[in-house]
Amino acid sequence: MSAPLVAVVAFNHFSPFHLSVPCIIFGDLLHERKLFDLRLYAYEPGKLRSSEGLTVESTLDADELAHADIIIVPSWRDPAERPEQSLLDALATAYSRGSQIVGLCLGTYVLAHAGLLKNRKASTHWEFEQDFMRRFPDVKLDSNALYVDDDRLITSAGTAAGIDCCLYLVRQRYGSVIANKLARRMVIPPYRDGGQAQFIERPIPISTQDTRINTLLDYLRNHLNQPHSLDELAQYSKMSRRTFTRQFYKATGMSVGEWLTAERLQRSQELLESTSLPIDAIAVQVGFQSATSLRQHFRQRFEVTPGEWRKTFQGK
């Protein structure tokens, strides 16, 4: 049985990292066994150059591309640029013939431009989530998943999530034993817990346009470890409870409870990354009633435990 043909789409101003991920995983990593037939397909003629000056040449022509078992678009150079119709048509034709079509990171944009993701689930880099949803409102974007597989259309979150996605494809074809062996050879985990939510920067605004609310936010940040009632905060802000809740939401876009939880979680992240305080002590310091409460909220928001967060971002 011949090895599956994997075509990796290359283009000018390609990202060396994104291009190298599928080339490593589907290349000759296991020298004792040929798992895939890896080829590069040049989206544009001639030598293709990265922004850093690296060049690659195509080893696959357009006719062969349409018959590839797996076609991978490893990112894309500009979300605002629509690829040439010839590439989009080639992807659509290959998919109709039974190929798996993969978009890593911003490569999801190319699949969406080809019309392949309409009414389907997909993932892309979290920084481009809003832009992607604006351009492709008919795609069901999962902003947390490291990768998504919807009927042979596989898309991944940003940068290193492409590794997770490619290992998933290996696992599909050859099982966990081979995928784990590849991961060990690359010295990476074969499977990562949690999604990209743990890497998303969602800073809480320091201030709003309402000076009274700003004063209150400063007060709350300095007293996160204390319980706060709506009546107490309304009195502090010199408003009725009803007016206070309305003005707080108008200024922050969140209820008081949502804001406090988000601020406490953000502060707990900082303490997990920068200190060796026990989880119990962090829970008290940021205002959760117990370590159990902190763990529950943390897991719900980031899909990892506080201990796993510390291990990832503190390296211990």
Can you put this structure into words, describing what you see?
With 316 residues, the chain is an alpha/beta fold. It has two domains: 5-198, Class I glutamine amidotransferase (GATase) domain (Rossmann fold, 3-Layer(aba) Sandwich); 211-314, Arc Repressor Mutant, subunit A (Orthogonal Bundle). The chain is built from 14 helices and ten strands. It has helices at residues 16-25, 62-65, 85-96, 107-113, 129-135, 161-174, 176-186, 211-221, 230-236, 241-252, 256-274, 279-286, 291-302, 306-314, and strands spanning 5-10, 37-42, 48-49, 55-56, 70-74, 100-104, 121-122, 140-141, 147-150, 153-156. The strands form three sheets. It has a six-stranded mixed beta sheet with strand order 2-1-5-6-10-9, with helices on both faces. It has a two-stranded antiparallel ribbon with strand order 3-4. Strand 3 and strand 4 form a beta hairpin. Helix 1 runs parallel beside helix 6 (161-174), helix 11 packs antiparallel against helix 12 and helix 11 (256-274) crosses helix 14. It is elongated.
| Secondary-structure content class | alpha/beta
What Rg, in angstroms, do the CA atoms define? 24 Å
**Mean pLDDT across residues:** 87
Q: What is the strand tally?
A: 10
**Order of helices and strands, N to C?**
EHEEEHEHEHEHEEEHHHHHHHHH
How many structural domains does the protein architecture include?
2
